[in-house]
Amino acid sequence: MRQPWYHLRLIDRIVIWDLFVSVAEGAALFSFVFLLRRLYYLTELIVGQGASLFDILQILFAILPSIMVLTLPMALLLASLMVYGRMANDNEITALQASGYSALQLLVPVLITGAALTTLLLWWGERIAPKGLRVLQAVASDILRDTATAGIRSGSFNELGPFVIFPRSVEEGKMRSLRMFEVKDNKVSAVVSAPTGSITYTPEQEIITLNVNSGMLVKLLSDERDMAVQFDEMTFSIGLPNLLHHLARGGRLEQQYSRRELNQKIEDYRGGYLRKNDFSSREIKWFYEKWKECEIEKERRISQPFACLIMGIIGALLGMESRMGKRSACYSLTIAVIFIYFIVLSFTKTYAEEGALSAFTAMWIPNILGLAATVYLLWRTRRV
Q1: If you write DSSP's letter for every residue of 25-41 in order, what string do you get?
Q2: pLDDT tens per residue across span 195-212
């Protein structure tokens, strides 16, 4: 009796189950590593700005969706390496081939698992990850609204975006004997000294404003010469989104947009770039950069999920060929493959930002190279 097309053999169901268990393990591990890295940047926001425990939990859960988009392809690569490597090491692959299994039939479980995760990521990247980043933006903004203006401590160095502020005393937003340092590229570029100053927050424009009075600005020039300027009043403005990005590393702004918002932004920025007679060269350059960033993000949301399927097949073929059963070897090979993938992606993305490549081409080149590697490995496996 002919079996229906959706019927899976027992061995396929067992391998699929092993793959999903290993994917869960790898996703948990890689997500933890990425989360630790993000927490390093969030320390100043969480500790320095006095976030509550509830705020911290909200931030952690808001970050996880965008991290999962990165870690699931890594997890499937690791899972397929471990499962198929163990099967090859235990001669189970040889026994299945002797029973009539072809190389393509052996790949059915990882194809099903990869297709399921790819479909999940296509939905996840469009719906869940942007929403999580918007939640992060909202929570962190609330923390900064409550603490950025009132959290300046007297007799301490207070970091606020690109500025480090040291007041002798602070009373109701009024600072006395103020010294302020502007930091660029981890170096002090300017020093402001003033007897009085104030800090205010404008919620309508989401801007934190620093006003200093009757002071002196010392500009530290690159050729080791200083330039001093006396002033009666000077104002520094810090946009809350820029401050948030500095503190929370909440991802690029375009990563928070929905598909409709992303398409609208692309049209707006492209339209601004094409109206060259209406804007200065600096504004035109800004429109062009934003246009390309949004196009790259749009293509990334499609290309990156398909990398999950390609990584799974590559891991299965490498596992069958190398007979890797040890976790340490699987982790090492996973890191090597992911490193190569993201190096290529980094180069192509840079070319896309400069206009040398289209966003579509740049985002799909790593997948095309991965597909070529898959065809080559499959050819080698079928030769054996």
Answers
A1: HHHHHHHHHHHHHHHHH
A2: 888 877 776 666 777 888
